[in-house]
Amino acid sequence: MARGAPLTPAQVAAWRRFHRMQSQLIGVLGRELAQATGLSEADHEVLTALAEAPKGTLRARDLRWTLAWEKSRLSHQLRRMEQRGLVRRTECTEDSRGTVIVITTAGRTARRNADRFQQERIRVHLVDALDPAQLEALGEISEVVLHRLGIACTEARAAEPA
Fold it and tell me: Is 0.70 topped by the overall pTM?
């Protein structure tokens, strides 16, 4: 179909079904995560980025780039997480203007618990609802769209069995 041409009714319907599924799934998973673990999706994102970083530390600017967040959003999020003992801030030894964010033992524990819970719920809501071919197609479709958006899909490849 030519660029700029209106979507067909079938294309619009497919988009609407996908959009509704995606937003509802993310919403349900986020609510369940918060209810079961006390962590928000944002908490979990920050803890995951830090846990996957060498020594569990990242400069604040690198964390912001990793998450693709605005500076003020990250600052507010870190303040709340620091008050709860999930992360701590330290001065950057290479640059006195910089801040290093460190995941705490409590943060690591919270992240591990959240990961286990989230995987269980993803299985219930998504994986068990699809047959293996559908799940494979979902992964392939996601990778194609991410590539088109210019977003590398490295975590998907890293997680796949060799």
Answer: yes
